[in-house]
Known about the structure:
Two copies of one chain form a homodimer. By secondary structure, chain A is of the alpha+beta class. In chain A, 36% of the residues lie in helices and 22% in strands. Chain A has two domains: 4-211 and 327-413, Aminopeptidase; 213-325, Alpha-Beta Plaits (2-Layer Sandwich). In chain A, strands 1, 2, 3, 4, 5, 6, 14, 15 and 16 form a nine-stranded mixed sheet that branches. In chain A, a hairpin with a 5-residue loop joins strand 1 (56-59) and strand 2 (65-69). The first copy, chain A, is elongated, with a radius of gyration of 24 Å.
Amino acid sequence: MEPAERVEHRRVVEELQELAALTGGPDGARRVCWTEEWRTARAWLRGRLAEMEGIEVETDEAGNLWATAPGDSERAVVIGGHLDSVPQGGWLDGCLNTVAGLEVLRALAPGKRPVTLRLVDWADEEGARFGRSLLGSSATAGSLDPEAVRGLTDREGVGLPEALRENGVELDRMKESNRQLRDAAAYLELHIEQGPVLERMDLPLGVVLGTFGVERHLVCFRGQHAHSGSTPMDVRRDAFLAAAKASLAFRDDAARRDDVRGTTGIVDVSPGIVTAFNGHCEVSLDQRALDAGVLADMLRAAKAASEQAAAEEGVEVEWERVWRIEPRPFDRELIELADEAVREVAGTAHRLPSGPLHDAAEMAPLMPTVMLFVKSLGGLSHTKEEDTPEADIELSVRALHRLTAETMQWVAGRG
Amino acid sequence: MEPAERVEHRRVVEELQELAALTGGPDGARRVCWTEEWRTARAWLRGRLAEMEGIEVETDEAGNLWATAPGDSERAVVIGGHLDSVPQGGWLDGCLNTVAGLEVLRALAPGKRPVTLRLVDWADEEGARFGRSLLGSSATAGSLDPEAVRGLTDREGVGLPEALRENGVELDRMKESNRQLRDAAAYLELHIEQGPVLERMDLPLGVVLGTFGVERHLVCFRGQHAHSGSTPMDVRRDAFLAAAKASLAFRDDAARRDDVRGTTGIVDVSPGIVTAFNGHCEVSLDQRALDAGVLADMLRAAKAASEQAAAEEGVEVEWERVWRIEPRPFDRELIELADEAVREVAGTAHRLPSGPLHDAAEMAPLMPTVMLFVKSLGGLSHTKEEDTPEADIELSVRALHRLTAETMQWVAGRG
């Protein structure tokens, strides 16, 4: 391996620590998008890029920052990340991706670029201030509906369009950033897992199969509440017990496969007092699967289970969809390249779906896409306790480096 | 039957309507104890008693009103009721008992009294203003702990001792009212059922076997919440699902008998959001039975069920008792007399436990006690919709009249 291709993986850990010292603190990261701390992080990134030769840097209409290392072809491999964090966030979520990408950009010197290599630092992946995640990447992908976000405000009542304008972004021009993708031929992203799977398998790295499709519903059971003393058991129409039965059935159905999820999170009962059983109970159901057909089957099974539980308890049930998104499976060939890269640096590769969404979900429908995961300690994320052993971070940078080099060859070969 | 013994059951309905017009309104009854409306109801009762000859009226140290019709012996049968209501209450809960007792007092003229007959209008059965029910009767029974209620305040911040004083009652002297029970030999009470049992059986009247013992607990399940997308089903420690399983088991155990209850009312989950399963879930369990041994068995079974559910879901469970009261079974011989009285006026008698507590529960440990129930439409109570057909009210007055006369003979025979 030639010196120019050696990635300085240790430097990534040091730069992440530097960034944490600059824009974090005892309560965790403070890089909420469109705020002063985020702009400080961006300025730090621009400073690092300015030290490198031959890199073109620009910010697009959506506030995304692009660094371009021209190669033998204009066709480009894009590495994505996001410096923005949630409030009191971790030191790795999003910025590992960007800082590792920066290092890969350094390592893959001009002579080693059969195609162009680009790093994008997406704006507002978290949606922490205005509640809309993947804002920058969805604008560039073209899936953003400006009308759906125009009225969003933060806790102080500041509107999203106003906050964007303070950062030089016009909401109605954000989708013009789509031109950045004109020559994009593949998209790569490294991220912490934010789940327990790799740690439990004692593996540092995983290959991501795609982001889950999600079906999210509120399921409302209605019976009739009455006094806990005066009402015999056999005449009750207890909405909570119907919801309890249904929620167990939702879980049992999801537990039959290891690549799906089924979660009851919200549980609201009424009247919710000691001396009455409940006439009303609303639960949320969040179902996830990597396969659209499997997800549709799960939804049908859950509806049937809820109706059976309702019938058994003498109550009514109604469903209301609150959100859905299609599964975004990643590219089969890039998954193979990622698997090879992980095996080369870590010996063993495990393939797993992504629970959380990522900017990669916006890119997957537009170009071949794949992600790498690195182990999260305790599965924790979006908290200052978020952590990954430094040795694993370094392995992840090496894997991203290899994957990027291989993907550039792959793109060149297809051209 | 001689004219003096004929009860004017129609007058009871008319007097209840009169009382409702005086102290109720479009939103229901307003006779909350220790308020102006309650004093108005009491003044109305005193007026009715003043029209009758040979009746001694006094108010005791606990604010209970006693009307005494002397008989051939000082040994007394006591009929109890309460004019006080919840806010926006019904026209029957408590005052049916008092007004029917008034009519029985009228009907059982001096020559027909082998023993003394007394009517007591208990103060503050509902505890609607200060949260302590059975206040007057528990003071007289001797079970009241003044220290446990001294600090109680109403919504406006008025203290219980102050409100009592406005009504001529000194908290620390309330238990002196116990002297009223010196010659009491039996206690009778008529009440609306406040449940659906008699209506479902198409019966007007029932004989009450006693008031339930109650075991009331908070059951707290603790696991670990995590993200609904990133956490595989098989590694979850979902506290809500453990609580759901346990709550179903609590119900299933109670459903094996028709004279017990088991109710989950409170259900509090945390974090209670769509995108996570719950690491914490607290439910209430209210168990009721007429037999102390059965109640103890139910509690043991529920604890075992909660531990099994917790173990299956990988979570911890803890129990905290919030309240308990022993079952208060009524007197076997008086139950027989009540059964005969109901069968004579209604043809069929059904025996059932009382779900709610009543002043009779305070009297049952002290003397032979029994209650009659009259059908509640829709099982509704503590609301302006509370109702009972007038024909059934009239039957209930006739049954109370017969039961009282028979009980007076029974007491005389035991003397």
